[in-house]
Prior knowledge:
The protein is α+β, with helices and mostly antiparallel strands. The chain has 3 helices and 5 strands; from the N terminus they run H-H-E-E-E-E-E-H. The chain has helices at residues 2-12, 16-23, 96-130; strands at residues 28-40, 43-52, 58-65, 76-81, 87-90. Strand 4 (76-81) and strand 5 (87-90) form a beta hairpin. The longest helix has 35 residues, at 96-130. The model has no long low-confidence stretch (mean pLDDT 80).
Amino acid sequence: MPFIATLGLAKAAPDLVPAWKAQSGSGVIGTFTAVRESCSHGSCDYYGGWKAADGSSVRTNVHLYDSPDSMAIGDTAEARDVGALGGVFATAGGSAYLLLTVFAVGGAAAAIAWPVFLWRTWRTWRSSREHGTPSLGSAEVTA
């Protein structure tokens, strides 16, 4: 559970609000150019540069969320920058906002559940020690 909490809160949560902003059409439109790909389990993530359409802003080494299926190194795609730490979002849309939401909510749930689990386990252990309940290893077997 600590791993899920850390992953969800550290990786997904910071880009959650920007993902929903991109989904609603906010942000600065520009062009993403793929310079590197990272493929795993049949899908690829693309990283590269992004430049605002009006030339006012440039970002380097960013991830393209919701990249088109036909994307390859050297290709470009229209994308919007909404201030996400991880990257920019393809204007064609996709499900990145839902995926980030699931991971962030899962991380928050795990962050709450883990201490509760530890507390309840400790409380049960302490209660059994105070009431003299024999441990599993000391129980006698009768025939």
